[in-house]
Amino acid sequence: MRTLCSSTLIGEFFVIGFAALVAMKDPALSTTTVWTVSGIAMLLCVLLCGMVTRPGGVVLGWLLQVALVASGFVVPMMFFLGAVFAALWWASVHFGRKIDETKARFAAQAAEAGSSRADAA
């Protein structure tokens, strides 16, 4: 799960950076505000890469997805991109857990097969 979720978060890191460049064109927003909010979101993306497998990591990822969609009120294209990344986040969590379960099952079978071979010898 960690690899898939981290890949999604790194993609979001770059999308947030590009959205900040677009948001800077809005005369109603100060450059400081845009980069402070975007910088915090980008930092959160990087920190979440290491927290995905910890308790609450996936929940924080979902909160980031909500914030990404909500950023569409500043940069309208982010409604679409936020929805795309929310779908990617769901897929990363869903299929990542399935992959982890399959790996654990294969590891248990391999350990069982190894112990039965040792018993036979």
List keywords for this structure.
121 residues; mainly alpha; 4 helices; 83% helix; elongated
Task: Give a written overview of the molecule.
This protein is mostly helical and about 120 residues long. It is built from 4 helices and no strands. It has helices spanning about 1-25, 30-50, 55-70, 75-120. The mean pLDDT is about 90.
Gist of the model:
By secondary structure, this protein is an all-alpha fold. The chain is built from 4 helices and no strands.
Portion of residues in beta strands equals under 5%
Mean pLDDT: 92
Give the termini separation. Answer: 38 Å
Helix content: over 70%
| Low-confidence regions | none
Number of helices: 4
Count the E strands. Answer: 0
Helix/strand-derived class? mainly alpha
Secondary-structure map with pairings?
Elements: H1 2-23, H2 31-51, H3 57-70, H4 77-120
Helix pairs in contact: 1-2, 1-4, 2-3, 3-4
